[in-house]
Amino acid sequence: GSVVIALILMFVVFHYVLGGTKAFSHGELYTALSNDPFDPNSSNALRTRILAPLIGWVFHLRGPLFVLVPWIFLAGLLALVNVWLRRTGASSLLAFTGMLVLAFSPVTLHSLVAPGFVDAVSYFLIGMAFMQIRCALASCLCMALAVTAHEASAFLIPAWLLASASSGIVWRHLLQRSALLVALLLPYTAYR
Fold first, then answer.
1. Rounded average pLDDT over 30-41
2. d(Cα 165, Cα 7) in Å, to the nearest integer?
3. Which of 184, 163, 89, 72 is nearest to 124 (CA)?
4. How many Cβ atoms from other residues are within 10 Å of residue 110's Cβ?
5. What is the C-alpha separation between 74 and 10, in angstroms, rounded?
6. Is 54 helix (H, G, I), strand (E, B) or coil?
7. Is 34 exposed, middle or buried (0-12, 13-18, 19+ CB in 10 A)?
8. pLDDT for 87-134, tens place per residue?
9. Residue 169's pLDDT band (boundaries 50, 70, 90)?
10. Which among 120, 130, 188, 184 is positioned nearest to 156, based on CA atoms?
11. Phi then psi for 82, rounded to 5 degrees?
12. CB-based contacts of 134-138 (< 8 A; 24+ apart in sequence)
């Protein structure tokens, strides 16, 4: 249900803002990267933000089809808001209102007006990292993937680590989770 509602909201917002389907600005660079994400001769300035172009490459959403990758994650983000709010005890109406707020925010508007921007990929993965905070591996994997989608996600790591400590700061817990995150980021570090 959440995904269907998210897709309907995206459709409405897309028409409201007269969204486009052609990659724009940075979206053009991500689109080019989706054709060959591991090209060592690429001078693409966004080469280090590899996750979304890699997903596009793996699932054959390359070139002009790449704009679908961020939109898929945007639908996931809208659905995630609904699920998260419902899990925390919000009514259906309040959860839908939360989806509406996000659907008509710059997060969504920007993704639909300037296709190809991958910010929604990072937002979805950060949301998943926080939503799965009690499961160390799933949460660390989502946060590591968020960093590979956009390095600015790394600025949320301290808040994410503190949120993972259930009652007070337990240094051993924080060090274990940090070590797991670093281990998951090693392949990305080697790539950079």
1. 86
2. 35
3. 72
4. 14
5. 8
6. helix
7. buried
8. 999 999 999 999 999 999 998 999 999 999 999 999 999 999 999 998
9. low
10. 130
11. -60, -50
12. 134/164, 134/166, 136/164, 136/176, 136/177, 136/180, 137/180
Which residue is associated with the tokens 């080697």? 190
CA proximity to 63, closest of 11, 28, 15 = 28
Dist CA 84 CA 16 (whole Å): 26
- Quote the CA–CA distance of 81 and 2 in Å, as a whole number: 9
pLDDT at 37 exceeding the cut of 70: yes
Helix (H, G, I), strand (E, B) or coil at 113: helix
Count of all residues that appear for the chain in the document: 192
Answer for the pair 151, 141: CB distance below 8 angstroms, yes or no: no
Least confident segment among 23-37, 72-86, 136-150, 162-176: 162-176
| Per-residue confidence (pLDDT) for residue 146, from 0 to 100 | 97
